[in-house]
Amino acid sequence: MTELPIRSVVTGGAGFIGSHLVEYLLHRGDEVVVIDDLSTGSMANLAGVVAHPRFGFVEASILDRAAVLGEIDGADRVFHLAAAVGVRRIIEQPLDSLRTNIHGSENVLDACLAADASLLLASTSEIYGKNTSDALHEDSDRILGSPLKSRWTYAAAKGIDESFAHAYHLEHGLRVGMVRLFNTVGPRQTGRYGMVVPNLVGQALRGDPITVFGDGLQTRCFSYVGDIVPALVAIAERPEAYGQVFNLGGAEEVSILELAERIVARLGSTSEIMLVPYEQAYGPGYEDMRRRVPDNTRSGSLVGFVPRTSIDAIIDAVAEDLRTRTESPVPV
Ligand SMILES: NC(=O)c1ccc[n+]([C@@H]2O[C@H](COP(=O)([O-])OP(=O)(O)OC[C@H]3O[C@@H](n4cnc5c(N)ncnc54)[C@H](O)[C@@H]3O)[C@@H](O)[C@H]2O)c1
Fold first, then answer.
1. Running along the chain, 332 residues long, what does each successive block of 10 average in pLDDT?
2. Is 154 a catalytic residue?
3. What's the rounded Cα separation, in Å, for the pair 35 and 57?
4. Does the CB atom of residue 81 touch ligand 1 within 6 A?
5. Does ligand 1 lie within 6 Å of residue 63's CB atom?
């Protein structure tokens, strides 16, 4: 008797990470349904899979409770990636972002419980806020700014998502694992909502000034989407992950100024690097984190996660993607 394929639902599957995850799941033999409202994602991201016989797409918001319950009914597992993402979007649409990231996630959790589906919830390193420790581990303290600063509401909402998921696990036995992603980058990420790598690479390709916010000495550890996606699936498949959270981040700490310099050198760009005060970029009172370095020990131990792709290789892949994108060759 032939085995039936695993039925996976990916919320946010038309987005940057989601579309790579969809391709990976189809390749592994899953039947995949995407729920996405196309607010920051696009069908162009799914161009390679729309005709696939095991692929389905539903244009709906995760705030549409009936749609979420209906589509997840009958699923074996759900990857919940739909979210209002990107500093610019959070600041410009704080209410919509809060609703999507809290009420939308609650709908997904309820639907998974009703369908007896397992769930992997995408959370974020923003959870740690201004904690600048050498290596943030999953139990590290969170240091967030005022809840009245919209910038922190993304971290606040994702924190509530994690607490909700954990409570569903404790009280109802929901099979849910969580991951905190640290600046995942790669092809198909758009710079429109304030994502730094596609923004800077796009500026370098056009020969525009490369805008680095603040003094540029804030550091990040960028990870490549191709390293992250297999880890998402591996964690989702491990029962030991239920009720737990796992960091997934890059290995190389780099300041944004250094990143800009490497982009210019790597791409042979004529662009100048320009420091832009945060207030000019995001309005008065904007706060950033100086440093964000992951401790990947837990995900390494469970599923052997190792971030392998170098920053130079990431720059090359993003540049190649921006050069060849059909709908908008070099997005601003
Ligand atoms: N890229 C990163 O560096 C990063 C870091 C930390 C966490 N994450 C998390 O990973 C997930 C995917 O992020 P991404 O970088 O691929 O961003 P993305 O914006 O490309 O993907 C989000 C997707 O969710 C969809 N969406 C938004 N609101 C929705 C709604 N109400 N209903 C249905 N769909 C909706 C968007 O259209 C988009 O396709 C998010 O949950 C995000 O918080 C990403």
1. 90 98 98 97 97 98 98 98 90 93 98 98 96 93 92 94 98 98 95 87 96 95 97 98 98 96 97 93 82 96 97 97 67 38
2. yes
3. 6
4. yes
5. yes
